[in-house]
């Protein structure tokens, strides 16, 4: 059996994962705690849970007004370190350091409040309500007690059995962080710039405990413009710090430091934000700056966005779904071993009359008479992948780590073969390179870069090629020729997905654009999805807001969107319907209007060709990969709505259009970075079967 291959023992991680999958296959909750959250989670098992939390919170807050801000901060510091799992509450043990002892958590308080709530819950509902849910509820009640909004808390979290002091040091935002760094850290946790700006409003209450958190602002930024500080505010803070020898406490919001309101944002408008990480929301941010002004003028908008963002942050889960979890009996301690959890999962299954998930039952002839003996396909697929990983073999479903050197030993000439065939085709047909670049985009945006776009239709499957957005896509013959040469040189080695990624890189370079190292190791999908094409590919008439949303779904930000749109510096659109709205409806309207002479030229061509005119995206240098596309946008001569709105409707994107128009090197660098990022897009489900196709147009089972 796989667990005993080469005398080895299956890894604990594999056993843990199998236990979870076996439990799920039987319809039981995941024993590692990562179920769907609901606000009714304890309605049957502990109906008084929320009232108990609120009662204890009110008692502590009445005795100590610093309680509510402390609990709110405690929740933030928990969620940003591997999800909202109460790991922040664990004390150190002989084998584990506590997150409490990490430098960013040195001034945290409120642990005793959570312990007090948990004690009362244990008396009322033993071993039922997790410490993670206690903290989430207490944070909500803290905001409401301070005069802020309330909301329904989604419940069902479980408590981590471990803590990580290293992750606390790495993953928590720093008071001196730049806006760019804050945006990056929030994006890692699935939070956008609106969430960042709203959640930062928690600094409308609470205090900074040490001058070192803001000394750079009060000593270095006076009178500098940009992120400068109000001189009188800086002088006041300097005086307090010097009098207290650097240990002065200062409120984040000097106006109403004990009230949850929007005064924090009013302070930022006056450049009286205490921390660099606060002030930069207004002085360095485009989208965030606009939100600061909105929240300062309208507290109701701030409240609504804060609630939405708190729910979103409260849903941050551990990075690995198989991370062991439990409902702690005491929030500060009690770390169950993984072995114990695995054993309990088996015993619990047996107690319910179900098979032992680890297989050691009595054998009998009638074993499958009632069940039919068919294991869940998802379970079989997942277990196969996990078993393979436990033995050190690649994931059989193809989703390994990508690297540039992937074929160095197995097919060292792969990249030169791709380039050679690309050059031959491009010399014969100058439309080759733009077509291949477009083909790569259209593949990656539909369930990742898996070459699904190359598959022909079968009796049981429609082809993505036949979806309306792909009607004018070309270059399939080029990819087939490259693959044929690779098969002669390195049979069954180089995937069609990697061929397409390499060919797209070479296409850009052949057109005069940048080159970059392509990360390799993709595998080819066995299936295509026409429906996903229709849903996931951007449309030429999409608004900027819709484009931003679609790109964010693929972890691509506004910089990626603006840079990747620059691929329209080459190529042509094949039908007037893609831009007829712009050339007929937007002339002279301002905002997203179009240059009248450009519109007249395009209308004439469309009418002469009965709506079937082809037009270059970039009229200046349509066969050269350069930054002229962005120059066209500045002149409102962008062909598509989805192009022009980057400049006329976007704050961050508009600034980037101007930057790229003035500096082609910046565009080239950002384009290469974004292409690598897009090329790393994987199928949504890691267990999706994959292979190295022998022929790009058909799965191996049909070849």
The counted number of beta strands is: 8
If you average the pLDDT, what whole number results?
85
How many separate domains?
Answer: 4
Structural class: mainly alpha
Please state the CA-atom Rg, rounded to the nearest Å. Answer: 29 Å
- Strand order, main sheet: write it out: 1-4
Q: Any idea what the CATH architecture of the largest domain is?
A: Orthogonal Bundle
CATH secondary-structure class of the largest domain: Mainly Alpha
How many helical elements? 29
What sort of overall outline do the alpha carbons produce when their principal axes are compared? globular
Strand-residue proportion: under 5%
Ranges with pLDDT <50 over ≥5 residues?
A: 1-32, 335-397
Look up the CATH topology of the largest domain.
Answer: Peroxidase, domain 1
Helix content: 40-55%
> What is the straight-line distance between the termini?
32 Å
The main sheet comes to: 2 strands, antiparallel
Give the topology, please.
Elements: H1 12-25, H2 49-63, H3 67-79, H4 111-124, H5 131-145, E1 159-160, H6 165-171, H7 179-188, H8 193-200, E2 207-208, H9 215-220, H10 231-243, E3 250-251, H11 263-269, H12 276-283, H13 287-297, H14 299-314, E4 325-326, H15 338-351, H16 377-390, H17 414-428, H18 432-444, H19 476-489, H20 496-510, E5 524-525, H21 530-536, H22 544-553, H23 558-565, E6 572-573, H24 580-585, H25 596-608, E7 615-616, H26 628-634, H27 641-648, H28 652-662, H29 664-679, E8 690-691
Antiparallel strand pairs: 1-4, 2-3, 5-8, 6-7
Helix pairs in contact: 1-15, 1-16, 2-4, 2-5, 3-5, 8-13, 8-14, 11-13, 12-13, 13-14, 17-19, 17-20, 18-20, 23-28, 23-29, 26-28, 27-28, 28-29
């Amino acid at each position: 059996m796989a667990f005993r291959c080469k005398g080895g023992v299956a890894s604990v991680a594999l056993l843990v994962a199998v236990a979870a999958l076996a439990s799920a296959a039987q319809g039981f909750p995941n024993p590692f705690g990562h179920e769907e959250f609901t606000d009714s989670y304890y309605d049957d098992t502990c109906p008084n849970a929320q009232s108990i939390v609120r009662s204890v919170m009110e008692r502590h807050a009445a005795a100590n007004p610093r309680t509510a801000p402390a609990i709110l901060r405690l929740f933030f510091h928990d969620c940003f370190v591997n999800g909202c799992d109460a790991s922040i509450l664990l004390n150190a043990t002989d084998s584990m350091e506590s997150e409490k002892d990490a430098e960013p958590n040195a001034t945290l308080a409120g642990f005793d409040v959570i312990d007090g709530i948990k004690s009362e819950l244990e008396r009322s509902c033993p071993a039922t309500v997790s410490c993670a849910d206690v903290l989430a509820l207490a944070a909500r009640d803290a905001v409401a007690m301070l005069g802020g909004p309330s909301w329904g808390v989604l419940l069902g979290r479980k408590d981590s059995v471990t803590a990580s002091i290293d992750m606390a040091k790495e993953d928590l935002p720093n008071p001196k962080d730049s806006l760019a760094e804050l945006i990056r850290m929030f994006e890692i946790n699935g939070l956008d710039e609106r969430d960042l700006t709203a959640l930062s409003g928690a600094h409308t209450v609470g205090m900074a405990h040490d001058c070192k958190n803001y000394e750079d602002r009060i000593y270095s930024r006076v009178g500098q413009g940009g992120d400068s500080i109000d001189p009188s505010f800086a002088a006041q803070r300097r005086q307090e710090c010097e009098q207290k020898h650097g240990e002065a406490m200062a409120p984040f919001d000097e106006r109403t430091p004990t009230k949850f309101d929007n005064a924090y944002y009013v302070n930022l408008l006056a450049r009286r934000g205490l921390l660099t990480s606060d002030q930069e929301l207004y002085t360095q941010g485009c989208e965030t700056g606009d939100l600061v002004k909105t929240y300062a003028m309208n507290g109701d908008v701030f409240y609504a966005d804060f609630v939405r963002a708190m729910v979103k942050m409260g849903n941050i889960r551990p990075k690995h779904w198989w991370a062991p979890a439990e409902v702690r009996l005491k929030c500060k301690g009690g770390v169950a071993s993984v072995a114990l959890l695995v054993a309990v999962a088996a015993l619990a299954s047996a107690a319910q009359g179900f098979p032992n998930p680890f297989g050691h039952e009595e054998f009998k002839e009638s074993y499958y008479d009632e069940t039919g003996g068919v294991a869940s396909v998802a379970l079989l697929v997942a277990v196969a992948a996990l078993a393979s990983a436990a033995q050190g073999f690649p994931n059989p479903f193809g989703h390994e780590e990508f690297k540039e050197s992937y074929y160095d030993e197995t097919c060292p000439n792969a990249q030169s073969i791709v380039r050679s065939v690309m050059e031959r085709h491009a010399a014969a047909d100058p439309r080759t390179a733009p077509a291949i670049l477009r083909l790569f985009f259209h593949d990656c945006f539909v369930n990742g870069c898996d070459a699904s776009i190359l598959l022909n239709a079968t009796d049981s499957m429609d082809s993505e090629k036949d979806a309306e957005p792909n009607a004018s896509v070309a270059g399939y013959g080029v990819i087939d020729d490259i693959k044929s040469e690779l098969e002669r040189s390195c049979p069954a080695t180089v995937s069609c997905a990697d061929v397409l990624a390499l060919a797209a890189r070479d296409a850009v370079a052949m057109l005069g654009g940048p080159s970059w190292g392509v990360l390799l190791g993709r595998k080819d999908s066995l299936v295509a999805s026409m429906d996903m094409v229709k849903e996931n590919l951007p449309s030429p008439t999409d608004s900027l807001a819709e484009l931003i949303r679609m790109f964010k779904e693929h972890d691509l930000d506004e910089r990626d969107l603006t840079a990747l749109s620059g691929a329209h510096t080459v190529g042509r659109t094949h039908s007037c319907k893609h831009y007829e709205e712009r050339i007929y409806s937007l002339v002279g309207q301002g905002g997203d209007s179009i240059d009248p002479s450009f519109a007249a030229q395009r209308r004439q061509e469309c009418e002469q060709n009965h709506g079937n005119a082809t037009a270059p995206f970039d009229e200046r240098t349509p066969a050269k990969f350069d930054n002229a596309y962005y120059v066209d946008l500045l002149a409102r001569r962008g062909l598509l709505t989805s192009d022009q709105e980057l400049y006329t409707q976007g704050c961050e994107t508009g600034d980037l259009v101007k930057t790229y128009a003035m500096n082609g090197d910046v565009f080239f660098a950002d384009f290469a970075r974004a292409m690598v990022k897009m090329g790393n897009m994987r199928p949504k489900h890691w267990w999706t079967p994959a292979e190295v196709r022998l022929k790009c147009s058909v799965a191996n089972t049909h070849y």
